[in-house]
Design a protein that fits this description.
alpha+beta, 4 strands, two-stranded antiparallel ribbon
Length: about 140
């Protein structure tokens, strides 16, 4: 499975968008069966917030004490107001049996930003080795 790449639009002129890399370089990565996805400014921010949470925060905490990424995910969602800020989805386990899980997918910028701020505050309180994401992800 190949890694998903994101190329921010740095300008839009009459000739079209200008990306952070040449368009020919971006298009050269395409493969049959692949796709191009466009994101609006808000979607781009929430996409990067989720990437920071999954790819930096959870991995760093897991490396720090050896607990799995899933264990840290559960812990942070429980201790950082996840019930109020994140989306819940029901998982059907069988006849008459369901389980609710919290997910960061589909969460808006405001709630995701607040969740990240809660994680960072808890990290300071507990002396966890996590650093804040870029400023534009915390507005």
């Amino acid at each position: 499975m190949s890694k998903i790449a994101t190329y921010p639009v740095i300008a839009v002129t009459d000739e079209g968008p200008t990306f952070s890399q040449p368009l020919s370089s971006i298009l050269s990565r395409l493969q049959v069966g692949g796709a191009i996805r466009t994101l609006g400014p808000v979607e781009h921010v929430t996409d990067r917030q989720r990437a920071w949470y999954r790819g930096i925060c959870l991995l760093r905490l897991s490396d720090w004490n050896g607990d799995t990424v899933d264990e840290w995910d559960l812990r942070l969602k429980a201790e950082c107001n996840g019930v109020e800020l994140l989306k819940s989805e029901k998982i059907y386990l069988g006849v008459g049996m369901t389980c609710t899980r919290l997910t960061i997918v589909g969460v808006g910028v405001r709630n995701m930003t607040q969740f990240i701020e809660n994680v960072l505050s808890k990290g300071i309180e507990m002396n966890w080795p996590i650093s804040a994401p870029d400023k534009e992800l915390r507005r």
